[in-house]
Amino acid sequence: MQYVWQHRLWESQGLTTVDGKRIRVIDPGVLNTDAGPDFFNAKIEIDREMWVGNVEIHVRASDWFRHHHDSDPAYDSVILHVVDKDDAPVMRSNGEVIPQCEMHCSVHFNERYRQFIESSSQLMCGTEIASTPHITITEWVEALAFERLQGKADKAKELLKAFSGSWEDVCYVTLARNLGFGINNDAFERLARRTPLRLVAKHSDSLTQIEALLFGNAGLLDPNLHRGDSYYQSLCREYAFLANKFDLRPLEGTIWKMFRVRPQGFPHRRIAMLAQMLHGGFGLFTNIIEANGEPALRSLFDINLTGYWATHYSFDSPTATAQKALSRSSVDIILINTVAPLFYAYGESIDNYDTTLRAIQLLESLKPERNNIVQLFEKCGLKADSALVSQALIQLRRNYCEARKCIYCRIGHKLLSIAAMTK
Q: Model pTM?
């Protein structure tokens, strides 16, 4: 009912009070998401007399008393009580009767809304997306892309506070998390937090010690395993020394997921890559900000693993050929989820529009992601031609479709509005 009131989707004959006075809604007010009346600062004409104040909405008028609004001065400012069923007059705490009206919406609206929230389909409105006005789709996709990018930038700024203004620490934790590529994101973030830059910096001149710190804190070292692997055993000895020196406590090794993960994507290789990026000192954020164009950004992640990891996917499992740490498509994911949000967050922090614009331009220049969500929308006629659009579709799916928030989706709203106006 709040949705119907907010978007003026009541039946076409208009509204009247229960005693027959004509109502003209000039402004339905601002939806209140906290305690108090449902809508603030509404402007309403009742029999050509202007009223300015708040609006309260209930299914039954008697809910006013069940919720004890009649004795709460916060509701004395209510100028109209909107109900589906008029089963009692309502009044303010001083006994004054409040104008009341019954608001009914189309039965088609109710049916459509129920179809949306109760559907077992992957995409409740999938068959109608293609027929939705192009301008509605375009504007909504753009808004979703910014919504998703802003959410990621906000997380980066939260990290900035936690790390006392160190953008390199923010970059390190953000990069580490995204090296999990979805399935191991949380594990990688926990590892980065467990192995902070200030600790790594003490040993930045030794790749072996950095690898020992990371693999050890990841819970992936046990001297009782891989006894014939000299590299593995050397890491175990090194970590035992460092753990005793710095009172380190490893994560549980069981947090790492490898089921249905291709060998190239095993966390061992991602950890080895992170160690290589930390070796010699970590200055990735500075390099990102100073990079000139997409090729320069890509080069920051064009890393060939050396030594043991040039021929291994995991411990004691050699492979015949050496491969890059990240494929081109994997670098795309890092650019989308790490670099673009850092540009946006940093640009907002220093109030530099050109830096925030770099985030948008980067996403527009990258190919769209290929995943189940993007493919689902493409089957329904909504195609992604850039990473900016694929990010929007992921935001739409995760935050609206899966949450059944169809009434907050502009596509859903358009379809519901059509249903509400159908007699």
A: 0.84
